[in-house]
Design a protein that fits this description.
Radius of gyration: 15 Å
CATH architecture: Alpha-Beta Complex
Largest sheet: 8 strands, mixed
CATH topology: YbaK protein
Number of strands: 8
Number of domains: 1
CATH class: Alpha Beta
Strand content: 25-35%
Distance between the termini: 32 Å
Length: 160
Amino acid sequence: MSKEKSPVTQAIRVLREHKVDYTEHLYKYEERGGTAVSARELGVDEHCVVKTLIMEDENKKPLIVLMHGDCEVGTGMLAKQVGAKKITPCDPKTADKHSGYQVGGTSPFGTRHPMPVYMEAGIAELPRIYINGGKRGFLIGVAPADVMRVLKPQLVNAAA
């Protein structure tokens, strides 16, 4: 772990406000490295690294999808489960606007605008997950039960 001081992001403020027990993990961010890089840098299974994706439905309504790092989102499967005709990933600029975070550093905690959160059901069964803390190169380790308590996500089966 880096000797660098961990940032106090909006995500960290939300976790503190909800009295969530978490660990901070800084790593060297690599452009387009994704969860494979963060898992390698932290020495954890990529399945336990959760990506935060900002997507939108056919009406351009944004939503957050939490997915295992080693899986893709089956957008058709997700759309069926959430009652949408179509779900697509937002382009980075739009995602940044909705979340208030920079793509690659998007946290589901403390987003600029409230959005519905959908979490892959298998994530809830893991003992601990690593999710973005609101800045590139910064993950937090947290119990899925705390994610459920704070974000109140709808569980879905959309891993492809």
